[in-house]
Amino acid sequence: MSSKFHRLGLAGALFVAVLAFPASALANGLPKSGTVVVNVSQAGANLLGTRTQVDSAWGQPFSCRPRGSQTSCQYEDYSTGERAWATFVSGQALYIVQTVSAWTTSKGVHVGSTKAQLDAAYGSQLNTSACGGPNWPCILGTNNGVPVQTVFQLINGKIANITMEKQVF
After folding, report:
1. With contact defined as beta carbons under 8 Å apart, do 95 and 149 qualify?
2. pTM score
3. pLDDT tens for residues 115-159?
4. Which CATH number fits domain 34-166: 3.40.50.720, 3.40.50.12650, 3.40.33.10, 1.40.20.10?
5. For residue 145, what are the contacts with CB-CB under 8 A and spacing of at least 6?
6. More confident residue, 104 or 21
7. Is 119 exposed, middle or buried (0-12, 13-18, 19+ CB in 10 A)?
């Protein structure tokens, strides 16, 4: 094989491939900042929203994986490595989770907040039986009678991710 690419070698071929890769494919879709409305939405993506609505809020997903009646999509900010995921069942986002430190609740809680900050903001509203240790999930209950919950997952006493999910019985 004596083509131009063969003479370029692996490094040259990789360089050509990078040049041909569209810059839009690396566009950061996730909002740099956003509001977490407990039991409702995260940075404009509503729990129970459609895929189109979530894509409108967060941009095009990095990847999606269909499995039966559900599809899980991952969204990513390439400049920070922060991520968000949504799982759609029968067209609705029943599970959304994020690790974006700049998305905050109205009480200032965000990924990276300490358990003490979470307790100060939501103490009496937290499910205390599930929020005891430094690596436990801290859960807030329903939204206007709809069985949804917001979970602040702690790792080493700090919030590692914020998850909203519709409880399916």
Report:
1. no
2. 0.79
3. 999 999 998 888 766 677 778 888 887 666 678 899 999 999 999
4. 3.40.33.10
5. none
6. 104
7. middle
